[in-house]
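User: Some background: our group keeps a shared notebook of sequences we're curious about, and every so often someone picks one and asks for a predicted structure to add to the entry. Today it's my turn. The entry only has the sequence so far, pasted here. Could you supply the structure so I can complete it?
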Amino acid sequence: MLIETFKLTRKFGELTAVDNLDLTAEEGKILGFLGPNGAGKTTTMRMLAGLISPTSGYAVVDGIRPDKEPERVHEIIGILTEAPGFYNNLSARRNLEYFAGFYHLSDASAQIEKYLKLMGLWERRQDKVGTFSKGMKQRLALSRALIHKPKILFLDEPTSGLDPEVSQEVRGLIKNLSREGYTIILSTHNLSEAEQLCHRIAVIRTALVTLDTPANLRKRLFHHQTMIKLEEIDDNLIQVVSKLDYVNKHSREENTLLIELADPSKHQADLIKKIVEAGGRIIEVTDKKHSLEDIYLSLLNEEEKI
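Assistant: Of course. Here's the predicted structure to add to the notebook entry:
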């Protein structure tokens, strides 16, 4: 694992922002941090980036302890904060030249040109950043995070406050970076965004609620349901379905039956046959898909009951 945390804890006075956090991030993958406001997502990222030290516990980032050697960690990471700051009276290119100077790059000009072109900002390179839209500043901030060729990217709410078109553009850039092999830690409130981008998701509420792939979370939290839409549903049809020994549960939503089968791959064809034989006129058969929002809310509700 490229990143590991061991009982990572951070307190601010009497407030515990992060509590005994144990998690891992795989090299070349996107790990998403999900959680409500104040859950500790940004604090965790700041500890991993060596910007603040833990109260107890520790993290290891590519073999380096951020609390012990923050300068070494800064050499291998790039950070995009929720509200990136720039020198608004300087051009986009001059801003990147200034920040590149912290890394003593031998090919700074080439790197700056590469990422300004990648982010669609090359034609505006001489314009003052103060004239840029929020979306352009976000793309410039991604350029700044990448110019020193980091191994790991920390992205804190990368599409916050952007309009849908620009948000989709930024998500596309993040996908491309993942394909290029970057390890990315992504903090977001946008559940659809997390589902689109993340290989694994850590749900955090001060402590770690769970860490898994979206697919595994679905399997763990929700049983498979077959959705059968019919022209109409009568009591006879309901009785036929309820008497089948391989039907664990069934419910009705208007003209759709939601049926939980003991073994969908084995029993779904016979279920359809029995419904047709009982006079059911089937319009559509699909599997019910649970969104990441369903999973997220289920996890938080489970945690509240503990």
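Suggested note for the entry: Residues 3-219 form a domain with the Rossmann fold fold (CATH 3.40.50.300). DSSP finds eleven helices and 14 strands in the chain.
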